């Protein structure tokens, strides 16, 4: 039996009585809090290390406060430097006020969004079980040393432009599953069980080039417009049956924005609360994409060390792509 065969296929979900349709609750155990990160393992890390050939390193996080004003009406972080010159010691401390763990590049933890009808989060965790401290369920600190392995870049932006059918990234344009599959084929890239998938939609580079007035208009929930990938059951099946461990994108919500909060088929609900599939937003992928196109290698080692914050809901990825 192959390692990828020891788990049920998407069509066989759920495996637990009473669990929502198309959920992975119980697949990794009734007390599991890692979801699809369970697809990562020691062998995958060793295999990923073999992909390091050129010694190139790409930081995938935005700068803190890169979005001015911040998206989703969040408050900007305030950086304070404290000087001290006493007892013969000269130096500085610093602190961040109002820092929101989702103000820029981020992993959404599995406690971020729950299932609408079942009133529960991944694996049936209830809202009252999500709390600050070491006993908080689905805490981001439990990922602190887990997000390491082989990663694949799917360059959707390059793919649609090469086909002379570009989209407007600053609109709720939707990339279908067929584009993800087509881009992989065009790149000559193959998904393997335990892959971390990074998806370039073109949104980040479009946002960076926008005017100050345009950025101000995109800062509110109502004003933001962003492209993304479709949120279909077929897409979730593709991710699950390929044993994708996590999905990160360069756009604000992975799926197109705005979303319908009442739609149970929204990607946030399907991925986080149903499958336990971590999703990442606002990753910096343009420089990495240019290098992948230059050497025609779209797979690499990825390391990501989320904040060791007990009870944390989300975290900047602190992610490096290493080729």
Overview of the structural elements:
The chain has helices at 42-49, 156-162, 177-187, 203-209, 212-217, 233-241, 267-275, 286-295, and strands spanning 57-59, 78-86, 89-97, 106-108, 147-155, 174-175, 196-200, 228-229, 246-249, 279-281, 299-304, 314-315, 319-322. It is of the alpha/beta class. The protein has one domain: Putative cyclase (Glucose Oxidase, domain 1). The longest helix is centred in the middle third of the chain and has 11 residues, at 177-187. The protein is globular.
Order of helices and strands: HEEEEEHEHEHHEHEHEHEEE
Poorly predicted segments: none
User: Treating each run of at least 4 consecutive H or I residues as one helix, how many helices?
Assistant: 8
Helix percent band: 10-25%
Strand order of the largest sheet: 1-13-11-5-7-9-10-4-12
Straight-line N-to-C gap: 31 Å
Return the CATH class.
Alpha Beta
The tally of strands reads 13
Q: What about the largest sheet?
A: 9 strands, mixed
CATH architecture heading? 3-Layer(bba) Sandwich
Average pLDDT: 96
* Annotated CATH homologous superfamily: Putative cyclase
Number of domains: 1
Task: Chart the SSEs and their pairings.
Elements: H1 42-49, E1 57-59, E2 78-86, E3 89-97, E4 106-108, E5 147-155, H2 156-162, E6 174-175, H3 177-187, E7 196-200, H4 203-209, H5 212-217, E8 228-229, H6 233-241, E9 246-249, H7 267-275, E10 279-281, H8 286-295, E11 299-304, E12 314-315, E13 319-322
Parallel strand pairs: 5-7, 6-8, 7-9, 9-10
Antiparallel strand pairs: 1-13, 2-3, 4-10, 4-12, 5-11, 11-13
């Amino acid at each position: 039996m192959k390692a990828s065969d020891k788990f049920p296929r998407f069509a066989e979900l759920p495996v637990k009585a009473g669990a929502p349709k198309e959920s992975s609750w119980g697949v990794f155990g009734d007390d599991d809090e890692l979801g699809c990160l369970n697809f990562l393992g020691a062998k995958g890390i060793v295999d990923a290390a073999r992909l390091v050939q050129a010694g190139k390193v790409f930081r995938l996080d935005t700068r803190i406060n890169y979005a001015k004003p911040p998206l989703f009406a969040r408050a900007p972080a305030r950086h304070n430097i404290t000087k001290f010159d006493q007892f013969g010691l000269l130096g500085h401390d610093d602190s961040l006020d109002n820092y929101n763990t989702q103000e820029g590049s981020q992993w959404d933890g599995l406690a971020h969004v729950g299932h609408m009808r079942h009133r529960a989060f991944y694996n049936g965790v209830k809202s009252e079980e999500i709390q600050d401290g070491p006993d908080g369920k689905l805490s981001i600190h439990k990922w602190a040393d887990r997000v390491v392995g082989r990663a694949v870049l799917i360059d959707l932006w390059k793919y649609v432009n090469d086909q002379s059918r570009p989209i407007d990234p600053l609109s709720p344009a939707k990339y279908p599953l067929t584009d993800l599959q087509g881009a992989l084929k065009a790149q000559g890239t193959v998904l393997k069980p335990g892959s971390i998938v990074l998806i370039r939609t073109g949104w980040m580079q479009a946002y960076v080039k926008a005017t100050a007035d345009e950025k101000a208009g995109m800062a509110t929930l109502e004003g933001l417009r962003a492209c993304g990938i479709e949120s279909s059951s077929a897409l979730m099946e593709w991710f699950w049956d390929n044993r994708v461990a996590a999905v990160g994108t360069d756009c604000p919500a992975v799926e197109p924005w705005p979303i319908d909060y009442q739609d149970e088929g929204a990607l946030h609900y399907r991925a986080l609360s149903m499958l336990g599939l971590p999703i990442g937003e606002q990753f910096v992928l343009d420089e990495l994409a240019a290098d992948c196109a230059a050497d025609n290698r779209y797979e690499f080692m990825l390391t990501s060390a989320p904040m060791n914050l007990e009870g944390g809901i989300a975290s900047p990825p602190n992610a490096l792509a290493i080729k």
